[in-house]
Write a structure and sequence with these properties.
- The structure is a single chain.
- The chain has 251 residues and is an alpha/beta fold.
- The protein has a single domain, classed as EAL domain (TIM Barrel), CATH 3.20.20.450.
- The chain is 40% helix and 22% strand.
- It has an eight-stranded mixed β-barrel with strand order 1-2-4-5-6-7-8-9, surrounded by four helices.
- The termini are far apart.
- This is EAL domain, c-di-GMP-specific phosphodiesterase class I (Or its enzymatically inactive variant).
């Protein structure tokens, strides 16, 4: 089925991966992840179709669908007593100032949830224009926070961090995967956490796969954890059920 038809058939849906406090396991947020409920092929990940969507210039349309559906999910959860402190969306630097996307992010304030845009680490070295800074300021004025995604995968500088001033760094899964007692990866992640703390930036470890990693990351000061050890990406109902597990409810 073509992507145009999938949009018309309402087949793109948000899944939500929980983010928990490293200190006590409380639910503190969620990352929105795009999925296509394909009628013949089942649940498709972005890698299966996003390149085609970009070629067809449909990514902005899909972004808006994800934000609209996420807003609706947040509103339904709130009506049932569940408020998610923060929700994050993967947005490219070229689309983060899209008026439609910014307007939808503003709309989410009614759910008492902080909206965050995740930008790839590469923006710290690629985006230095006045136009980008203007777009960044516009996003912040709308009350949207900025996080740097996949941090540690590129060549970002500390100067770049101070200029962008993100609210959080999401430490790349490739750095988290090898974390073990006494490992070089643990020392490297610890150094990132220390720099972030110095700059007043929160750290989120992506791809946490087991309890040992969770404890090690907590002990070196990582603020928030995300990964299969806690939960895979969940649909709206699954996420609501997860949030109401013992000691999970955030509000």
């Amino acid at each position: 089925m073509e992507i145009h038809e999938a949009i018309d058939a309402d087949q793109f849906v948000p899944f939500f991966q929980p983010q928990v406090s490293a200190a006590d396991g409380r639910l503190v947020g969620a990352e929105v992840l795009l999925r296509w409920l394909h009628p013949a092929r089942g649940l498709l990940l972005p890698g299966d179709f996003l390149q085609m969507a970009e070629q067809l210039r449909l990514v902005s349309d899909i972004d808006r669908i994800m934000m609209e559906k996420s807003h609706d999910a947040l509103a339904r959860w709130r009506a049932q007593g569940l408020i998610i402190p923060k929700i994050s969306f993967n947005v490219s630097s070229g689309r983060m100032h899209d008026p439609g996307i910014v307007a939808l992010a503003r709309k989410m304030k009614s759910t008492d949830t902080q909206v965050t845009f995740e930008l790839l680490e590469s923006i710290l070295v690629e985006e230095e224009s006045d136009q980008f800074r203007m777009h960044l300021e516009m996003v912040r004025e709308a009350g949207i926070e900025i996080e740097i995604d996949d941090f540690g995968s590129g060549h970002a500088s500390i100067i770049g961090l101070t200029e962008i001033a993100p609210s959080a760094l999401k430490i790349d899964k490739r750095l988290v995967d090898p974390v073990a007692p006494g490992s070089q990866s643990l020392s490297l992640v610890g150094a990132i956490v220390e720099i972030a703390e110095t700059l007043g930036i929160e750290t989120i470890a992506e791809g946490v796969e087991n309890g040992e990693q969770a404890i090690l990351l907590r002990d070196i000061g990582c603020s928030v954890l995300q990964g299969y050890h806690f939960a895979r990406p969940l649909n709206e109902k699954q996420f609501f059920d997860y949030a109401y597990l013992p000691d999970r409810k955030s509000a």
